[in-house]
Each structure stands twice: as structure tokens, then as C-alpha cells.
């Protein structure tokens, strides 16, 4: 089998997506997600100008060699744009491979290790009462695990809390918005949030929280200690992770489990975090982490150190990534949990898929390949619109991590 064509479908059904379609001389095609929130066209250009011409004539079954060709052959290595581009090619080739062998991709990754993939979803509120209502709403939908985010009294806007009652969507059209942040107010507030949420939902529901890179290691240690009575499933992205050894300081002070890595794009970003067991869950996901090929290698490396997966799964990762993550998640032994921030109905219409939610778990479905498609005619009705993630400043104006 040979690759005969490779092209991008850039669309914006409620938010921007970049999708790679690779076609073959057998008539089979595969899809890959190339979406990098706020930098979508950088990846589109990298693929169109520098990658796709090199694919024509190659055998789509050669996923390992194509991956190495795109990784080592570029000379310049790693980074979110490069690794998202490589991921899109890799996932499309796995999709083709599954279709050609008439089997779901999970059967090529070890088969099913579990009946379904436990997922968590996002709950939020402008205040604690609203946040509790949102958590309880998702529990009533069948979720066994819920992330809780809340407005912080005295802080203009907090990460993860939508404005104007709309569903939370981090990227905003137009130029980057600016929000103010107060670590002190946040650290003084969050323990009361989880004291009241835990009291409202009882001990069995898995509760998660995303700090979103905003603390120093000692501040994260303080937060982790203060949350121990509420036994969170994890405290996510407690601080920026360029300084991997900063997590050792957090680890020294608290037993609250730690997850990080959604902004990572190769195993090297997490090498020390994993082998020192400074984290409990690795979040680097398929679309930004080099595809199924590299995500599986990273998961297998993490398994050696008792670190589980907790892949990123926000709405800015397309249903193609959701499908791929579920195929990998149902197969690997050290699966932890999968984020599932449900896409909009329009997005689901553009990307018809087999995966389904049932009683707190998701299943990728048994269609050959990934079990996801794209309705190109419908996608064409929603052209790309530049959008940015917000930026954040401290109360004194200092730029900080959003
Ligand atoms: C968040 C994301 O889902 C998460 O854990 O960190 O919403 C993140 O802010 C966006 O994916 C960034 O594009
Ligand atoms: Mg996050």
C-alpha cells in the first residue's frame, strides 16, 4: 500500500481544529489531529510546507520508520509545533493500519486491558455553591470523577470558569484577553472549596483540581498539604514543569497525588519527573506528544516507575485525539484516567465517531481503525478564525502563567 495524498482540513465548528487526511492507493484513508490551541496555523504550515511532500509514496504501515524520519530527519527536534505535526501523521497512519487489517487500533496496541476507560469531566462555578451544583450535575450524568474549578473571591476571573454562562472554551477569538491573578487569595480559598465539595458529594467520588501552572513549588506544597483531608484524585499542573526537580520539593511535603504534562511534547519533558516518581500521572497526550507511537513509548516508560497515564482531553483536542486516546487507554496496563471535556454538538457533527460514554467510562468502539471521521462538506461551512488563549497578570501587573 502507498500513500498517494495528504492534505489538511482546517475548520472552526465552535472552535478551531486542524485535521490531517492521508489517502492511499487502496482507497483507505486515515485521520490525524494537528490542533495546537492558539497556534493552529503554525502546525498547518509546518505540515504543508515541510512534512506532507515527504510522505507521498511511503508505505502507511511503516509507522515506526515514518516517525523516526520525521523526528530525526528534521534535525531540529521536539517542541509543540513539530511534535503535533508528527502526531497528526502518526495517528493517521495507525488509523489506516487498523482499517487495512479490519480491526480497531486498540487491538494493535495490546488489545483490551479493561472493559472501559474511566473518564473525568469539568465542573465549575463562579462561587462554591455553583461549583457544587456543577459537580453534582455531572455525577448525576454518571461520571465517577469530576474536576472542580471555582471563581476565587477578590480575583476578577479564574482559570476554568466560563464567562457569561457559556460552556468553558479557553481560546477566545480576537487578540489575547488579559486576566488578573492572586496566588494569595487562591491559596487561602481552595481548601474551603474542596472541604465543601467533599462534604456535599461524599468520599467515593474522585475529585480533581487543575492549578494550571500557577504556583511555585513551595506554594504547591502548601496547597497539596491543605487538600490532603479531601483526598483528591490529583492536583494538576501545580507549577510550571520546566524545572522538573521543583516537583521533588512538592513531593517532600504532601501526599496529594500530582499530575502534569499536558504542555509536554516528548518523554524528555518528563524523564526526571517519571523516573524520580515526582508525579503520579503523566498528562502528555497523543496530539501534542508525537502521536500514538510516542505516547505508548512514554506510557511504557512511566509504567516502570508506577506512574499512570492521565491524558489531556480538553475541547481543543479534536474527536480524532479523543478516539486515539481511548484506543491507547483501553490497551495499556498503567492507564490512570482520561480527561473528557465534551465537545459541542456541532463539533460532534463535523467529526462523527464510534466512541461512547456509559456510566463513567468511555469505549472507543470496535470499528476498524480509530472509528472517527470528518464531514468535510460541513467542516467547510466553518472556516478558521484566529483565536488565542488568554494571558494572566498578577495584581501588580507582573505577567504570570495563565
Ligand atoms: C486544561 C485545558 O483541560 C485542562 O486540563 O489545562 O483546558 C487547557 O487550559 C487547554 O487545553 C489549553 O488549550
Ligand atoms: Mg490542565
Bound molecules: D-mannonic acid, magnesium ion
Strand pairing plus helix content: what structural class? alpha/beta
The CATH C-level class name of the largest domain: Alpha Beta
Low-pLDDT ranges: none
| Total domain count | 2
| Strand content range | 15-25%
Helix content: 25-40%
Overall shape: it is globular
Task: Please give a structural write-up.
The chain is of the alpha/beta class and 402 residues long. The protein folds into two domains: 3-104, 2-Layer Sandwich (Enolase-like, domain 1), CATH 3.30.390.10; 108-366, Enolase-like C-terminal domain (TIM Barrel, Alpha-Beta Barrel). The protein has twelve helices and 18 strands. The strands form four sheets. Strands 4, 5, 8, 9, 10, 11, 12, 13, 14 and 15 form a ten-stranded mixed sheet that branches. β17 (391-394) and β18 (399-400) form a beta hairpin. α1 (40-55) crosses α3, α2 (63-72) packs antiparallel against α3 and α5 packs parallel to α6. The chain is globular.
Please provide a brief summary of the model:
This protein is an alpha/beta fold. The protein has helices at 40-55, 63-72, 80-100, 128-140, 183-201, 217-227, 246-253, 271-275, 291-303, 319-331, 345-350, 376-379; strands at residues 3-11, 17-24, 29-33, 117-125, 145-150, 172-173, 178-181, 206-210, 234-236, 258-260, 281-282, 308-309, 338-339, 356-358, 361-363, 387-388, 391-394, 399-400. It contains 12 helices and 18 strands.
Task: Name the features.
402 residues; alpha/beta; TIM Barrel; 2 domains; 3-stranded antiparallel sheet; globular; binds D-mannonic acid; binds magnesium ion
